[in-house]
Structures are given as C-alpha cells and as structure tokens.
User: What shape does this take?
Amino acid sequence: MAGLTAGELALLQQRLAEAESDARTEALASGASFLRFLERAGISWLVQRIPDIVANVKDWLASIFDPILNSF
Amino acid sequence: MQQRITQPAPMSEHDEQVLRTKVLEEVSAHPPTIGVIGISGVGKSSTINTLLGAALPTSDTVACTKEFWSVSAELAFTHGRSRGLAAHLQVIDAPGLGEDVRRDQEYLAAYRRHLPRCDVVLWLMAARNRAVALDQRYLQQLSDCHPRMVFGLNQVDLIEPLDWHPTLNLPSEGQRRSIGQITHDRQARLADALQRDIRMIPYSAKARYNLQGLFTAIVEACPEDRAWLFSSLKNFTYDDFLTAEARQVIETTRQPASGVLSLLTQRLGLTSPSTATE
Assistant: This one.
C-alpha cells in the first residue's frame, strides 16, 4: 500500500485522528467564543442567522453550528 | 426528540450590516494580538507565518526581527457581502532576546510594556537546545505580565537520531521517544522556574507537525470572547502535515465523515474536512 507497512499506516491514522480531535476542540472553543462576542456586542439574537454569513468558511462550520444545534 | 431548528433563518442585509459593523469595531479597537517570546533562532516568525498566514521575514542565519510587528490579515469572511473584512494581526516579538546581554533589559522592558495587551502569549523553545537557563530567567521576569501563556517546543523534526520519516512526515520511533523525553524535561524545568505546572507542546513549523495541537492550545488560552478572531485567521488545516503519498493512502482507508459536520457539509454542499486541502 504505497510503500507503507501496516504499522506505519496505523501510526499515520493515529496522528491524523489526534489532529482531527484537536481541530474539533479548537472549532468548539472558537464557536463558543464567537457566541460570547455576540453577547458582549449585544447582538446575540443574530446567532440564528449566522450560518448564512459563514456558510463558505469550512473552519467555522463546526464552531458555529455545534453551539447552535445544541442551544435550541 | 424533536429538533427545533432544522434550517437556519436567512440573514437579511440589515443583519449582515449589523454583524459586519460589530466585527469591524472589534478588530479596529482591539486587533487580535499575540506575543511571541523565545531566544533568537527558535523560529518565532516562521511559526506565526505558518499558523496565521502572516508574512514576517525569516532567516536561518541572522535575526530578522527588528521591531514589534503589526501584520494586516483578512478575517475569514470570504463570501457574501461581508467578505474581505480585514484585521491587523499584531505580533509582539521583541528583537534579539538573548542575543546580547547588554540589550536584554531593554527588550524585557519592552515586553513588559506590550505583553499586557496581548490576547495570548506564545513562549517558544527549540527542541535541540538543551540550555534553558535564559528561558527560565526571562520567564521568571515576565510571567507576571500575562496570565495566558502557551508553551511550544519547535523543530522536533531535527531531534536525534535525525531520521524523520519522509513519507509519513512523522518522527521515527527513536525520535518519538526523544520528543517525549525532551518535552517532559523542558516542561519540568520551566515549571520549576515558574513554580507552577505548564504544558509544553512539541511541534515543527517547517514540517507542519502538530500545528493543530499548538493552535488549539492558543485558541483555548485566549479570552473567551476573543478566540474566534484567531480561528478566523488560521492559515492551515489539521491534515496539512500529510504528504501527497500519505494522503492518497489515507483517502483509500478513511470512513465517511459522521456527525454534525457531515450533516452540515451535506446540507450546504461543502467540501468535507476529510478532503479539505486548503
């Protein structure tokens, strides 16, 4: 398999899973942070409409949607 | 259980204008600001460039940082009427710390003036450098300037026995052991100097190894209503470290994405993170 041993593949998958987990943690922290910002700015009512504005920003998707889906 | 929201309400032009105004006010009044501290040569500028898409000059041979930096960067509103919102990423990076003992007090004084306005402070060390006395000394002098410090151990790809795996772009077994030992050692020695526990994050800016781990630590350390600014300036993806060959192998073995992200990517017709190469 592209010159990789089973052990190397497992190592690669493990590193990727760790990075993915870190990315998700970051996304959730970032999303929660954005909600705090909206609250501080007095526009927390915009939360329900945020998806439109960030619909094309992959890095923000999990951040923004997870808190929303969990909040309603 | 009934899901109360299945489709986000549309954002009106007025809504977008309100949001845009608030974001602009925030980034204008309080730009995202990161303090970067480390002995000359640990890769401070290259780390910031890699993480946040800044364009700080770097050099393998001479110290490039001559002043405190302010870098223009675009927030990640890439589409719609709010695209192109710009922020000035401020990088507090003192020139030549540790290069000349006669100037250190001047640099430390500058750090003490600037650090309090940072959202987060990134303290960097080079994995190959065993001498940590300067770091300990500076840390003791600066630790009271900022409560939110993240510690990074750069250049782990250069650790002995120098047999970084070229295809996997990962440390060899011997290097993994060394990285663990060195990380533990530096962590303990800085914690001793600080008299409190710290967490040291091994990474390599050049090999793009564990950038996500470092970045997540930065975001988590930020003030809770400011972390989103840094995420929106993020300039890499968590799987950037994959070589073309490794990516090909992973793609053939990966399971379909699941959970909320999958739902959203399907609904919005977006690229799933499993295939994102941006």
